[in-house]
Specification:
By secondary structure, the protein is an alpha+beta fold. 27% of the residues lie in helices and 26% in strands. The protein has six helices and six strands, in the order E-E-E-H-H-H-E-H-H-E-E-H. The strands form two sheets. It has a three-stranded antiparallel β-sheet with strand order 1-2-3, covered by helices on one side. The chain has a three-stranded antiparallel β-sheet with strand order 4-6-5. A hairpin with a 5-residue loop joins strand 2 and strand 3. The longest helix has 9 residues. The protein is elongated and about 65 Å long. The chain starts with a strand and ends in a 5-residue tail after the last helix.
Amino acid sequence: MKPFRSSGKVRLNANGRRLDAWLIYKCVDCDKTWNRTLFERRNLRELAPATLEALQHSDPSWVRAQEFDLDGLKRKAKRIEEPPDAVVAKETVREAVDWAKLEIEIAAKLSANLRLDRLLASELAISRSRLQALHDRGNLNVHPDRSDFLRHRARDGMRIVLDLSDAVDRQAIGHAAIHSEGH
């Protein structure tokens, strides 16, 4: 089975005061299309004017948000292949004195199927097993709290707190946290 990629276009069908909307995907090898249902038989009065405008003009930012609605896509697709690249932008709010404590807040504009442990390991230049060991010792916590958070997706608004007071390499971890190395 060949992968499909979003065309960035929306297809609409009106039936009286009811509207159907699809996001059009195209095969990467041929021009075969697949219409992913966004909604069916929705009353026009239920749609916000901005949403209707975005649908009618295939607004790129609105379409992009729909493309990254992974939960909605999972309900319609058998398999999802995400691009291997993710853009990570880092912003330092306050420089640490000795990196004994590191707080990270995830600000994800779009949903991504990127596990938190993989993201942290990559951006802090430490292994996933070390992250797990920090968590097991109580030196790695997440807010809002949830069980087994390291194996779940990184989500907008997550706050991760690392106690690195016992880590001999905390300066290197802190340096990796604030600098982008080839991202």
